[in-house]
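Work package 3, deliverable 3.1, input record:
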Amino acid sequence: MQTAIMSSTSFPAVDKEREFRNALGRYATGIAVVTLKTQTGDLLGLTVNSFNSVSLAPPLVVWSLAATSSARAAFEASEYYAINVLAADQEALSQRFASRRENRFDGLALETGLGGAPLLPGSCARFQCRNAIRHAGGDHIVFIGEVEHFDYGEGEPLIYFSGAYRRLAA
Ligand SMILES: Cc1cc2nc3c(=O)[nH]c(=O)nc-3n(C[C@H](O)[C@H](O)[C@H](O)COP(=O)(O)O)c2cc1C
């Protein structure tokens, strides 16, 4: 006779969105901070793990922004933005740029990229993008950026997997 242990699939009321997030979380990603300078001169930036490559020629990358983001109008209007791929020792920056904090750039030794987009020091790689394509994607806006300039170092990246920060294994 079978024991009374039920698998999670036995519950029809299981939270589908939670399960979908869990499944997506099995895909390990890096972490990036996407930044821009607004038309009024303010600096904006947010943490994303939706960044990925799209095309080599022309050089295109993709990331998505929650449609409810307070930065949505600025990202839709901006000619340029920068994508800063975080290094393994930049977990605090990831948290900072995902928080409600007022000025996320305080105390950072910023460099300036195309369109005035702030470049974060110590990043693994930085892609300066023209805001080429914006596309509605459900509850997110899909941004495809054309990379006009990039730089990178040899440092190891910060990893995000199953809702937690990780490091590359030796
Ligand atoms: C690991 C991680 C990955 C995230 N990825 C995204 C993302 O791809 N797109 C997005 O819009 N928000 C993402 N967020 C959430 C934003 O960073 C956060 O909602 C934002 O900073 C809130 O500020 P805002 O209302 O000004 O956008 C992520 C947060 C974390 C911690």
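The longest helix spans residues 16-24.
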